[in-house]
Amino acid sequence: MSTHALKVRLLSRRYGAVVAVDSASFCLDQGEIGVLVGPSGCGKSTLLRLVAGLEPPDSKPGAQIVIGGNVVFDADAGLDLPADRRGVGLVFQDYALFPHMTVAANIAFGLHHWRKAEREARVRELLSWVRMEALAERYPHELSGGQQQRVALARALAPRPTVVLLDEPFSNLDQSLRSELREEMRALIKQSGATALFVTHDREEAISLADKLIVMHEGRVIQSGAPHQLYWQPENLAVATLLGEANVLEGMAVNGYAECILGRVPLARSTQGRVHLVLRPEAVQVTPDAHGEVVVERVTYFGHDQLLTLRLANDAMLLARVSGVQRFAPGQRARAAVIAPAAAIRADE
Ligand code: ADP
């Protein structure tokens, strides 16, 4: 028996000539937070809607969705349970709160078949969780954007779904509120024990929310795993560049090292032959040195850190991300050293 809370196998969805989702497979453990990430139009929302039961997947052999051990879609068996029988909670942009209902009534919405005393106790519990007790009798238009999203999460979690699905839940909020609410939502979901699947196109949001990142490209799942693993050991250039800035260098790998324009660079994983090296800017240490071999060409200062564009002795360019404490200026000479292993992607892949 699988212990996965959500298992998606070989799902596809075509709109006319557009293949929105192409044989996508992934799974999430109980309590795990998964994040579908990828550029706009790569099929994230469509895949989420297929899982939710808001749209049917194409009927292709082997296509299946299992939620909490129950098969809710199976192309071979002709099974396709409706959304309300899948054990999922939804927080979608287009699933706004009911405007004519109070906060408490919105949260109670999915509990209409519960006994009154239990329903009231559950609503009280959720109101306290999302710190909205004092606002229980307000209407949605009397709440801030962040408060509305907390109520939407409470409404989705109220019936204790196996999986909660969230499509770009922070996109209508301003930047400072976004990161605050993101951490809060993550904590609430963890506390609830629910398994969650988010959709976002924002890499920082994806990396900070996810236990498991599921990277999509042109309808396909191209890599999934822990954020740290995908960031430092991407299996292809699409994943490497999607998740952050990357220096991509040609190299020749021999066991745990590669020879490249920077000399001998350690590899995150041993391999052989012609490779593209992905070296994160954070892996380049820069020390000011009037006799150094590299020249700082450009400085993009962010406060907490800064991105330096370096010109090497052989005129090649290299990005380095260093702390914002030290001041660098264009034209300044420095030394550069690689302080973390590079990922090697075989050039023939
Ligand atoms: P993402 O969420 O990654 O931005 P979507 O899942 O919304 O991507 O869309 C994937 C592709 O499918 C896009 O090319 C989009 O135009 C197309 N698409 C999505 N929904 C529909 C639809 N209802 N009808 C036709 N094409 C659609």
Task: Describe what you observe in this structure.
The chain is an alpha+beta fold. It has two domains: 4-237, 3-Layer(aba) Sandwich (Rossmann fold), CATH 3.40.50; 247-346, Beta Barrel (OB fold (Dihydrolipoamide Acetyltransferase, E2P)), CATH 2.40.50.140. It is 23% helix and 37% strand. It contains eight helices and 21 strands. The chain has helices spanning 44-52, 103-108, 116-129, 145-157, 175-192, 203-209, 227-232, 237-242; strands at 4-15, 18-29, 33-37, 64-67, 70-74, 79-80, 88-92, 163-167, 195-200, 212-217, 220-225, 247-254, 257-260, 263-266, 273-279, 284-288, 294-301, 305-311, 317-323, 333-338, 343-346. Strands 7-8-9-3-10-11 form a six-stranded mixed beta sheet, with helices on both faces. The chain has a five-stranded antiparallel beta sheet with strand order 2-1-4-5-6, with helices on one face. The chain has a five-stranded antiparallel beta sheet with strand order 14-13-12-15-21, with no helix packed on it. α4 runs parallel beside α5 (175-192). The longest helix has 18 residues, at 175-192. It is globular. The chain binds adenosine-5'-diphosphate (ADP).
Low-confidence spans: none
Structural class: alpha+beta
Count of alpha and pi helical runs: 8
Walk across the major sheet and give the strand order.
Answer: 7-8-9-3-10-11
- How is the biggest beta sheet arranged? 6 strands, mixed
Q: Any idea what the shape is? A: globular
Note the gap between the termini: 35 Å
**Distinct ligand kinds:** adenosine-5'-diphosphate
Q: What is the domain tally?
A: 2
